[in-house]
Specification:
By secondary structure, the chain is mainly beta. 7% of the residues lie in helices and 48% in strands. It contains 2 helices and 21 strands. The strands form 6 sheets. The protein has a 4-stranded antiparallel sheet with strand order 1-2-3-4, with no helix packed on it. The protein has a 4-stranded antiparallel sheet with strand order 5-6-7-8.
Amino acid sequence: MVTRILRLSLFVFVFYFFSCVEKEKTFFDSLQPVPENSGFKMDAYWVWGGSVVKVDSTFHMFASRWPRKNKFPDDYFVESEIVHATSNSAKGPFDFQRVVIGERDSIFWDSNMAHNPTIHKIGDEFVLFYIGSDFTTLREESNRLIRRVGYATAKNINGPWKRSELPVLDEESNNPALFVENDGSVKLMYRDAELLVKIASADNFRGPYKVVNKNVWPTAKIEDFYFYKKDGKYHMICEDNVGQLTGHERWGAHLVSENGVDNWQKFEPVVVYDHDIIFENGDTLFCIRRERPQLLIDNQHITHLYNGVYNGRDSWCQPVEIAPPVKVE
């Protein structure tokens, strides 16, 4: 009789314990409401694609901007530059500090335009990957300027920044996403003009790079990637360009791979974010475009998602807190 009572008591305890343990939130469910005056905006400019790193108690954003002379986003191809903004909060508001990557002598690969920044701390250097174009080099069979991936480095987050004299990839390349291994080797994900996604690898971020996957996801058009590692697997969040992964055009999607090179699979649930941003006052903003996902990883935890957003009138970089934070490697 005593044994039966003990077994029953143990069963009740185990059932109660597991029923009380909260299931791990999905990425989507972890997105929090945002303050009204958050993010990074500039009245005279279209602003896009902010990437953030925390240094001491300050949050440093690197974003693209170009003058609001014509409709969004047409002029970025020839007029975008990368700027530095700061805040004492990951949510902002961020204050403009300086132009980091602007126009320079026409002999250089990025003399005309710089766009799509992603900031990383590698060893004792800050490394800013981005795309650039010069004034004259066109893509094959196109009247558009070629875009290529390169980088700039600085010992101090406030500069001075030293740009690479050449791009790391001498081909049409866009949307760079970098993953740095513990040994300093890197995987670089990017896409071409037709949204064909590739991965190149190198022993260090300076290269040389070798393409190791020429078609990451053949069955859908994806772009705007961010790379991280969790629970021994490589994860990628990206924009589902025409809705073939999420069922919704330009929503955020989540893919996973054992080796970070091939055999990418849908993560379940696949949706990372939609086009609705909820404000703390209860209002909802439906973004016409919400793209270029970037993550803030602080002390090995993903704490914020950043997107470029466009509402039909303005564009800006919008942070969204992730709570609870997601532990990564």
